[in-house]
Amino acid sequence: MLKSLQIDSSSYSKLDIAQLKSSCGTCGLRELCLPVGLNEDEVKKLGDIVSQKRKVSRGSYLHYAGAEFQSLFAVRSGFLKTCILEQDGRQQVTGFHMSGELLGLDAISTETYTCDAIALEDSEICEIPFAKLEEISLAIPSLMRHFHKIMSREIVRDYGVMLLLGSMKAEERLASFLLNLSRRFYIRGYSEHNFNLRMTREEIGSYLGLKLETVSRAFSKLQDESIIVVDNKHIEIKDITRLRMKLGKSYDDAFFDM
Amino acid sequence: MLKSLQIDSSSYSKLDIAQLKSSCGTCGLRELCLPVGLNEDEVKKLGDIVSQKRKVSRGSYLHYAGAEFQSLFAVRSGFLKTCILEQDGRQQVTGFHMSGELLGLDAISTETYTCDAIALEDSEICEIPFAKLEEISLAIPSLMRHFHKIMSREIVRDYGVMLLLGSMKAEERLASFLLNLSRRFYIRGYSEHNFNLRMTREEIGSYLGLKLETVSRAFSKLQDESIIVVDNKHIEIKDITRLRMKLGKSYDDAFFDM
DNA sequence: CGAGGCCTTGATGCACCTCAACCGACGTGG
DNA sequence: CCACGTCGGTTGAGGTGCATCAAGGCCTCG
Fold first, then answer.
1. CATH number of the domain at B168-251, out of 1.10.10.10, 3.40.50.10420, 3.40.50.1000, 1.10.1040.10?
2. Which among A93, A97, A189, B194 could bridge A206 via Cys, Cβ 3.0 to 4.6 Å?
3. Residue A219 CB closer than 7 angstroms to strand C?
4. What is the pTM assigned to this prediction?
C-alpha cells in the first residue's frame, strides 16, 4: 500500500491520508530516521504526533526562509535542497536532503526557518510538530538522546562542508561531493556506483562554492581520467578508489612543509 | 571571591575548587550560557552536575580530536579555537569560542570529539558531563528546550560560515569576521570598537579559507580606507557603517544580473 | 519547428596563492 | 649586555585556479 503510493502518488484518497497518519511503525526508514533505537510502544507514540504527511512536488517549497517555525520535517521519499539567500541576491545551497533526513533543525534557535527548502523531485514529507516532539521526548529518554545525536550529526556535517569550502580545490570538492552522495545512496540500498543527480550543475556549484562552468569542467576532467562516466545527470563511478585518492592528493604538497 | 579568582588564578586552593563546584548560580554568564531561562532551583540542579572547573593555559588542549566524549565544555573565561586536521596535514579552524559558549556539541553524535580544542589564552572551563545533563534535562523541560536552541544556534552559525566560505571575497570575509567578533565582545560588555585579536593571521586565514598573506593584505586595505586601525593584534573599528557596507557590496554586481 | 533550460567548452582576466625578502618583538644563551 | 634565532606580521613579484564572458549543442515542451 505504502509502496504503491510512492510510485503513483497522484491517487491519494482521504483514506490513504488517514492510514498514513501514524506510519512511523511501518516506515521503511525507521533505521535512518528519528525512531532509531525506540521500542514498538515508543515508535507508536512518536507516530501519533507525526500529524500528517505532505506532498511537495518538484520545484515547490516545503518551507520559506523567515516563516514561523512549527515543525521539523522528515523526508520520507524524494529529494530536497535547502538554501539561504543573501540580501544582495547571492544564493547558497546549504544542503541536499534525501529520505530519512530531518529538516528544520536550524529553525529551533530563532523559531524561524533560516533556509528555503525546495523539492528537487516530487517528495513526501512527514511533518513533526516540534513542541510535541520536545514534550514526548521528556517521557522517552532514548528519543531525546537520539534527537541530540541527529542535531550533533548535522553540526559535524557542517564542519565537513566548512573544511571542503575552506581548503579544497575544485576537483577535490567534486570528488568529496560524489563520494558523499554515493555513500548515502548505498546506505539506502541503492547502487553506490550508479545514480542520477537530482540537482543542476549550478546547484552543485552553489553548494561547493564553485561556478557551474567549473563544476562542469571538473566532471569532464574526472571523466577524461576514466574515474567516472557522466551522461548528463547520470553518474557512473568507474573507479571509486581513485576517486577517493583525489581527496588526499595534496598530501605530496604537505610533505614538503615538514 | 570568584572575581578575584578570575584575576589571579594561580592561587587555587582546595577550598576554592570546592566553592567553584556549583557556581552556575553566581556565574556572571548566566544570561549567555546554559542556565538561560531557568529559575533558582533549576540553576542549582544544573550547577550540581557541573563537576569541576578546568584551567587550560594558553596553547594547551582542552580536548583532542578522536578522544572519547564525556562532557560538554562551557567557556567561563578566556578564548579557544577548535580545528580539524585532515589526514594530509591541512588544518581548518572551525570556530573561535569565548565566554559563555559551549564546546563539544559535535561529539554527541559519534561519542568522539571531532575537533581539537586549543586555548588561545589562559582559560577557565566548566565541564558538563553530558550523560548527567541529558538526565536532568528530562526533569527540567526549560533546560532541554534551551539546550536544543543552543545546538540549533550552532547549526545556524555554521550555515553563516558556509555562506561566507562559499560566496564571499577576501575583504568581505574579513569584514564579516570583524563584525562578528565586535558583536560578541559587545554582548559581553566590552567595547565593540576596540579589541584585541587572540588569534594569529594564519588562524584567521584558516577560519576564513584564506592564506595568511591575504588576511594581512585585507587588513591593510581596510586600514588604508580608514575603516579600521590595525596595530598588530589590536583592532580599532573607526567606521562600523562602512565596514558593514563591505558585506552588501556586490549588490551592485547582482543588480546587473537582472 | 522554435524557445528556453541545462550543459559543455574555449578565451580571457583577475583574485588569491605562492615564494621570497624584510621588519619588529621576544626570548635565550654566550 | 648584545648576538642570535624564532615567531608573527607586512609587503612585493609572479604564477595559477577559478570566475567571467561568450558561443554553441542537446533536450524537452509547447
1. 1.10.10.10
2. A93
3. yes
4. 0.89
